[in-house]
What does this fold into?
Amino acid sequence: MSAPVGDIGLIGLAVMGQNLILNMNDKGFTVVAYNRTTSKVDDFLANEAKGTKVQGAHSIQELCAKLKRPRKIILLVKAGPAVDSFIQQLEPYLEKGDIVIDGGNSHYPDSIRRTKELEAKGLLFVGSGVSGGEEGARHGPSLMPGGSTAAWPAIKEIFQKTAAQVNGEPCCDWVGETGSGHYVKMVHNGIEYGDMQLIAEAYDILKRGLGISESEIADIFTTWNKGVLDSFLIEITANILKFNDDDGEPLVTKILDKAGQKGTGKWTAIAALDAGTAVTLIGEAVFARCLSAIKEERVRASKVINGPQRESFRGDKQQFIDDLEQALYASKIISYTQGFMLMRETAKELSWNLNYAGIARMWRGGCIIKSVFLGDITSAYEKNKDLESLLFDDFFNKAVHKAQPGWRRVIAQAVLWGIPTPAFSTALAFFDGYRSEVVPANLLQAQRDYFGAHTFRVMPGKENPRLVKDRDIHINWTGRGGNVSASSYSA
Ligand code: 2AM
It folds into this structure.
């Protein structure tokens, strides 16, 4: 038998898989393609992959035989049982040190489990976020690989050459241990939900608040795209708003206002609740989609619930539009601050050493949230890899301070107009909570102790013989009841 020629194998010849193969082929790698329905292998070789170095395989055994060692095999198949099924089918043909890579939309707990299972058998596992859709897969996606750290040197060149490049730097780096690649991809998707919701709220304010037409709003977004908000999502929003139906009406106004979701935003929000981290903006973005989904109920409500009379705007319109740009920017800073807080918290819990500057660099290009802004986040974490929060970075600290007055004016005006701004508002509420030395949780603790004897701690500086430092204190608030605390008391 001839010596193996394949640099990497890929299983799953849907469009993403095919495009990723063609992309890797363009970068000089020999890819061996396999698919459950093997007729797709022949179709692919005869059409899209015609004239390339791509090799086909008609069985798992043939695929493994054609790969150089350590074997590297990417799965791009439906998340869930299909991934486990292929891993099982591959195992008999793999040898120590071979690498299975899951590039699908797997939920990170599955990737944690698979890393452990494969490592126990002497194999290596990588769960990689792949972002950028079909277009990204073909010409340069954002790749977020994590898992068995020993696999990285073997896949680094292929991954970094295949990924999108920004200023000569690849949008791919090693994320961290076990399920961290898929975790980071999940947070990326959550942040994408947040960015989209913020843009939608800005559109709503411009349209219903200021009464500006879609084509003029498109011009505003085009202008914003030259400043701090320069990003793919702002760019496509301008293009969408300019796009007219055959009758000259903006097409966007004819689209039913009911948003769908596949679930990764929800996963992020759930992960945030599980981690006890206040990722409020992504949460609101998910809830806004939920509220949009009950269209029929909203229509009925709109007939019987009145808001304020919306008066036409009498202030300086351009100033307000500039304020709105700052509100969007500040809210976006908060959203990313929250996203990175979540990753830090989870990393602590799961003992991951996450590469935060690398994560921001991976998102700078090739994916939906790509932006100039992510370059600034990269710099912040390059300056200080242990940065507690983006708001402690000089650049972002100055940026939110500058944005603050306009941000508040926009939200205040939207509230008066009765235009909902869940994402803008929650960002500001988080900001005001985060910068508060004292929040009213003292009262919550008092309530908990009053009704459930849950105890509380004393505020520093307020100690006295009854309120002892570092002690769980229970007070008999009513004069009735006992002095028993919740640890030994169940009401
Ligand atoms: P297929 O072409 O044989 O259907 C996207 O659906 C990709 O995932 C396709 O390559 C598809 O293979 C594969 N896929 C989906 N479900 C699968 C399963 N249960 N087992 C194996 N491959 C599956």
Summary: Residues 361 and 378 are 6 Å apart (CA to CA). Residues 12-14, 35-37, 40, 77-78, 82, 85 surround adenosine-2'-monophosphate (CB under 6 Å).
